[in-house]
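Continuing the batch. This is chain 6 of the set; chains 1 through 5 are on the previous pages. Same settings as before, nothing changed between runs. Recording input and output for traceability.
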Amino acid sequence: MLHVAYSPLMAGRFTDVPELGAVAEKHGVSAAEVCVAWLADRENVVPIPKSLDASHQRANRDALDLELDDEDRERIDGIDRTERVIDPDDAPWNQP
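Output for chain 6:
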């Protein structure tokens, strides 16, 4: 089964997460690219970032070439933060 990570960049609300910034700086990319790369690196997850900006679209595509190492993955996996930005009433997780 595949899971879709729709709009995983939370309209930029992740930029204050220091762990993402550290990994981004290490690789010379943006925190957004790190997020897309981390999701794409996970088994059975398909990230679908959305953007109307052409440069962001290119960065999202380029993120698929970013190779995270074990240290990067551990750092990102250790982030203790849960936030749902897109949360429609009829979503499966909101059903009884």
